Amino acid sequence: MATIRTSEDPRIRIDTLRSALGGDHTVRSTDLSSTERVVEAARETDALVVDTGVPVPAAVFDACERLDVVARAGTGVDNIDIAAADDAGVTVTNVPEYCTEEVSTHAVSLLLTLFRDVEGYDRAIEDGRWDWTDGQPIRRLSEQTVGFHSFGGIARRTAEKLAGFGCELIASDPYVDADEMAAHGVEKVPFGDLLETADHVSVHAPLTEETRHSFDRDAFERMRETAILVNVGRGPIVDQSALRRALDAGEIAAAGLDVLNEEPPVDSELVGHDDVVVTPHAAFYSEDSLVSLNEHIAEDVRDVFAGDRPDGFVDPNAAVL
């Protein structure tokens, strides 16, 4: 009988895990809010299921001989020391595609909300105004160019949805060739051209040292004054101070953010800004995505216990945060 400890995150559904794991396994939700708590829990468990807020540094793997697998309940694994896990013989898994439909829809929703000034109209009506000119100027979406920073699965699905509006689509991603992008109706461009050409930019990149603060002061100065920035990737890809400065200076028009540097934010310079829409890292969510997430976690954990390579295996030699 194996023991599985999970973090106290509502996206981790204990009943679904138990049902999908089968057998006589013990699945228990545990406070994993600090490294010390993670180490303590990991000493007594065969598998850890963690969300993005749970730190899993080398100290966890140094102290826990029993641990077989750390399953990330989501996509990014920047909170897990992948190299230390590999050295300790611990398998790390994630579920990269469980919310492709949801995140792509959320990205489009943020863009449309800002593009059509939905919140601005709503605020004006609350203030007693009823005037369509409050949203001026609004352009025709079919005549806009939308650029993608990174062009993985979620960006591709977002591109499919925006193609239905008739948008021109471009993308910058050094790891995807031009022919592959063209197959999705997207033109490959250098990052600098993306900034200068796109009417709006949607960020889908993973967090690496290469992508951290890709959108800094210089990047915003190169973007169009009417541009909307959407970030459904990782918060630190955008330099938040530089973004606030760009918004205040009129260097870009607006930002839709599902991810921030600090979550939840404390005294954020962006929350409450008239030209910013913030959602609470919720782009992944639908009831359907959570069922898929937990079923995939259970399948991966079961495969590790059986000595098989899980579908969600994170290769330590190619892990992308």
From TrEMBL:
Family annotation (InterPro entries): CtBP, D-iso_2-hydroxyacid_DH_PdxB, D-isomer_2_OHA_DH_cat_dom, D-isomer_DH_CS, D-isomer_DH_NAD-bd, NAD(P)-bd_dom_sf
EC number annotated for this UniProt entry: 1.1.1.-
Pfam short name (any one): 2-Hacid_dh_C
Residue ranges of domain D-isomer specific 2-hydroxyacid dehydrogenase catalytic in the record: 24-313
Superkingdom, taxonomy of origin: Archaea
Gene3D superfamilies reported in the protein's UniProt record: NAD(P)-binding Rossmann-like Domain
One GO MF term attached to the UniProt entry: NAD binding
Residue span, D-isomer specific 2-hydroxyacid dehydrogenase NAD-binding domain: 109-283
Keyword flag Oxidoreductase: yes
Major enzyme class: oxidoreductase
SUPFAM superfamilies according to UniProt: Formate/glycerate dehydrogenase catalytic domain-like, NAD(P)-binding Rossmann-fold domains
Keywords: NAD, Oxidoreductase
Family membership: Belongs to the D-isomer specific 2-hydroxyacid dehydrogenase family.
Record-given protein name: Probable D-2-hydroxyacid dehydrogenase
